[in-house]
Amino acid sequence: MAYEHILVETRGKVGIVTLNRPKALNALCAQLIEELGQALDGLEADETIGCIVLTGSEKAFAAGADIKEMAGKSFISAYLEDFITNGWERITTCRKPVIAAVAGYALGGGCEVAMMCDFILAADNARFGQPEINLGVIPGAGGTQRLTRAVGKAKAMEMCLTGRQMDAAEAERAGLVSRVVPLADLMDEAIKTAERIAEQSRPIALICKESVNAAFETTLAMGIMTERRLFHACFATDDQKEGMAAFVEKRQPNFKNS
Ligand code: HXC
User: Is the pTM of this model over 0.95?
Assistant: First the structure.
């Protein structure tokens, strides 16, 4: 499918979605978000794909929601269209693992989209921030919630109240990103990591993602119970038999996604 603001490609079992609105530093206009949703629908439905990488350009992952598009909204228009529930949350309902490969600016909605992904790999030039306060609004796509869960109250509160940006090193120290790599290596590392995930048993990877995500939604006791039941469910798969047999026989497993 031809998109205007994103590029979609597949490499083996990995789907790559590139935000591609360079003149606006990948500002997330409504059409881009709609295209992103369609691309994710397609990659979810594609049985050959086991993991998705979402990236931007070297200068900007995304510099936020499109300010020019938002500027004229009223309370009633924002409320009635349910800005931004429609579309944006599609990333969070993706069942396949999604890696954000972030270089350059990930600001406002850009930082929020990165945090909707399962984990963030950052280039050494990445910058994260929630500068909405400078525009007279607050983060609206989960920034006050996901950033707080990721880096704790002190840093999240300071960033949301002042608009201060974190560089990649601070983001790694704070636990916002899983790893920082040199800018030149970002896509190779992201694709290599995605390939590794895509090589695992598909159902087990999905179950694993579901179980980690439970940690954000529930109490420790309920989360442990969720994990325990999902762990038990793994033993109903052929891939558990294959994975453990392969270990015992000192060979690589050949998962069948069953
Ligand atoms: C619309 C944007 C944009 C944005 C950049 N541009 N960010 N357009 N929405 N969020 C456009 C600029 O208008 C300009 O186009 C072009 O991209 C290049 O930007 P410059 O500012 O000239 O680049 P630079 O000097 O390098 O500065 C980069 C920057 C700055 C620091 C990232 O662009 C910036 O501060 N952008 C806004 C960041 C921000 O406030 N994000 C939060 C948005 S609110 P023209 O045509 O003018 O030259 C948000 C709310 C989310 O995200 C809530 C849920 C929806």
Answer: yes
